[in-house]
Amino acid sequence: MPWLKADSPFDPDQLDTPVIGIGALLGNHDSGLHRHRCGQLLFTQRGCTRITLDHQVCMLPPTQVAWIPPGVEHRAVMQQTVDYRSVYLDQTLSRQLPDHVQVMSVSSLLRAVLESICEAPFKTDWHHGKPFHLLSLCLDEIAAAPAQPMLLPLPVDRRLSPLLENLEQLPPDLQTLVTRVGASDRTIGRIFRRETGMGYQQWRLLRAVELLATGRSLDCCADELGFASDSAFIAFFKGMTGCTPRGYFK
Questions:
Q1: Residues 25 and 80 occupy one common structural domain
Q2: Nearest CA among 140, 151, 130 for reference residue 107
Q3: Is 34 exposed, middle or buried (0-12, 13-18, 19+ CB in 10 A)?
Q4: Where in the sequence is the domain holding 175, given as residue range(s)?
Q5: What is the pTM of this model?
Q6: Which segments constitute the HTH araC/xylS-type domain (predicted)?
Q7: Across-strand partners of 46?
Q8: DSSP per residue over 44-113, as a string?
């Protein structure tokens, strides 16, 4: 696997190949805002990555993969230790995938295929033989992967914008919003629903996934998110995702 050190500069646009796979072990890493001429499939084997885009933010635990089309400006922030993987596709291959950012479930097969692509040398011939079939399987699996509700639009209402400037602190506690904005929780809920198409509880889910993926205990998650007990937090998580936190990450 082409393995990068945490402080190694890397620009996929400098390599003349249709497919590039890399891996890195990163801790408290911030990529900064950037873009590529190629598309990017980003996933982790361990840890959680927060991706911010123009008026959007998403959380990427090991159960999911993010697709970022060519030319889309983005920033990846990784807390604690993240076993990071990335597959870059040239513009021709990228046309076979969605023309918008998408977060998808990663099956065992898709994870194995992506890992194999990441292990391939930069000079691999992707037009023939096993690499060609591996790439074709990867594109088919990505096309069939179910989208996940982890890509959340940012509200632009002027009453909320000052509290959303620090994306690393999203989502703000609901009571903090109520106190500082001077609006009721119902009003804040309506603002989120009107501007993002999603409720405030989906923002809590985003934070819950980040906490769990970075090794926080259920007790810690319940406390930070304002739940009265572990069981209340588990019930919330199951109501939002259809499974318990343990089942979600398993």
A1: yes
A2: 140
A3: exposed
A4: 154-249
A5: 0.80
A6: 157-250
A7: 83
A8: EEES-EEEEETTEEEEE-TTEEEEE-TT--BEEEEEEEEEEEEEEE-HHHHTTS-SS-EEEE--HHHHHH
